[in-house]
Design goal:
- With 722 residues, this protein is an all-alpha fold.
- It has helices at residues 2-7, 16-46, 51-71, 92-137, 141-168, 172-201, 206-231, 246-259, 269-287, 294-323, 327-365, 370-381, 384-410, 415-444, 449-480, 513-537, 546-565, 574-599, 607-629, 635-674, 684-693, 706-717.
- Helix 4 (92-137) packs antiparallel against helix 5 (141-168).
- The model is unreliable at 485-507 and 675-722 (pLDDT under 50).
- It comes from Columbina picui (Picui ground-dove).
Length: 722
Amino acid sequence: QITTLINHKDKPKRSDKTLQAIQRVGQAVNLAVGRFVTVGEAIANENHELKEEMSVACIEARRAGETIAQLTDVASLDHPESDSHITIFTDKTGVVKAARLLLSSVTKVLVLADRIVIKQIITSRNKVLATMEQLEKVSSFQEFVQIFSQFGNEMVEFAHLTGDRQNDLKDEKKKARMAASRAVLEKCTMMLLTASKTCLRHPDCESARINKDGVFHRMRLALEQVIEIVTDSRPNGESEMPPISIYSGIKEFKNKVEGLRENLYFLSKENLSTMLEVILEHTEDFTDSAYTSHEHREHILELSKQAKMELEQLVSVWMQAQNQKTKDLMEDLEVAILKTCQCMNELKREVHSAATSLAADLLKYHTDHMVLKALKITGVEGNLEAVAEYTCKLSEQKEQLVEMCRLLRHVSGTEPLEITCIHAEDTFQVTGPQIISAAETLALHPSSKIAKENLEVFCEAWESQLSDMSVLLREINDVFEGRRGEKRVYLSLPRPGKHNANLKALKPVKLDTEEQAKIAKLGLELHLLTSDVDSETEKWEDQENEIVQHGQGMSSMAYSMYLFTRGEGLLKTTQDLFHQAEIFATEGTKLAAALQAFSDQVHNDDKPLLLLEAEKLIAMCKQLQITAKASVQGKSATFTKVDACILKTRNVMTLLCQLLPLCCKLLRKNKAGNGCLKPAPPWREDRIRTGTNAHTPEKRTETFGIKSLEHHVTNMTFLESK
């Protein structure tokens, strides 16, 4: 809204409608600022150490809001006596200054509020650490029970604070790291209870002490990692250097190679050679692994050799093309680029097959948990020799699973999944020795109920991690096959069946086998289109671009609708599907709005085509929304409606497949022609993001009103334009 005010065109004739609209916008901004500031002041009163800074920022924001309201008070301009009145038309710089002050002060308030959240998490962590130190030193059961009760309450508080923080994180990588750390803390809380009780019951037992110390150490590391994520810092100023996976290496290498089509001089041949060397070094993790099959090893070595040859050929043609840019040479370069990329794709496919087939075989082989069962039985029997034999087998199993996680990380495809693989590797690495120490304790004290319970807890953690690996393997395969996964659909959009009061009265209906068969072809077409859209969005350099984000969101929703046609996924009933279709259409309308905004930044020759495509998209989304909302009765009519929704979704996705490459081309054309685009409205992205999050249910209310503050920011940045 503020951008609209600043960018309005100064026309000599101003209609009453224009004047009233400008005044409404100014008043709405001022009111939203007032509400926002009220919450900010309430936070200031509850947090005295930041009260002064927060109060100053709130005063600045209120002053800026009032200035904008005064400068947009233009309804009286038609009257001669108001000629001396300063308005947006007579002093546009005043609105610009006020807008800058408003943005600056609002940001300041948000940053201060964020500091308060961080301080709360750190304080909560310190409480947990202090109580953990007391728990380590207790010598009696009575004292332990009392302190553990306090510890439990503190862990619950820490879990709530960090859970809210995890939901608020925008960086998917940080979100995955936070989820991993919180999972460790959750599982270790039960382990800490049984390990401590075992140690108290058998104070002279060395294996019980080792078992307990391992749990405390792991919890401290997890607590430290949470604080690193929250404060965005590393101990001793170290910078985090995540290991590079084969997937990310190949993706970056291909991008560089394909970039030669547009610019022959943007990188050196040494750079490309080094990138390939790094990728091939990582493939040694597969070729050197004892668990990689002979066939996979041979294929990986062959493809590595071929990749070197293809790069040599590419470099040769590339160097010639730099000296003499003839048509024949450019055609040869295109062939060399295609052959190099094809070879890298085959290498990627081969390492993926090697990692996932190993994982599938290992998970199937260890699904019966025979070693864990044997440890429990021999432990209760007090058979130290048998326990030693089975701990060796568990150590072998641990080495296999750790190797599996390392190889899966290379082919995981996304940073969050990479982090999940690293977390799984750590879990197997740590839990294996802890099971062994728990089993040894039980073998030494076979009649001890607490030692038996302790072993059970650690075995359950192992079994749980194996179960999680099956889910992780499915997600990795989804990414490889071009599917983004179902979770993405619901990150910022209302979940079907949750937010529509009218749904309660309707009986949920599922498609039967015959109906699924009828609609299968349409579903398959939709699936192929989602893969095409995902492939087009990956070509964009700026993955944060509004058009890309809406495109990805629509692709994920369309994929969940495809899963529905197969009787799979999170959309269980026809009513879920219709609600998802409505949300899909809404997202399409937002994409159309983003396209219209983008049209202001392109050359005049290209603008009509882009606007025409945006209008087509709006019309198609409107039709889909009407179809999805239409009331029907009876099985036949419901199936017809399902068919129509899938068909219209497919048509929108077909248009999206044409739109994405067009926009990408126009973006590059503008960059090449102008050096840069016209500045895009800075508040537009925030407006759309906050809009998509507007219906997300709050899990709990913060005592000092941070959620309330965010709600008022939403009001300020997402004002109705009616």
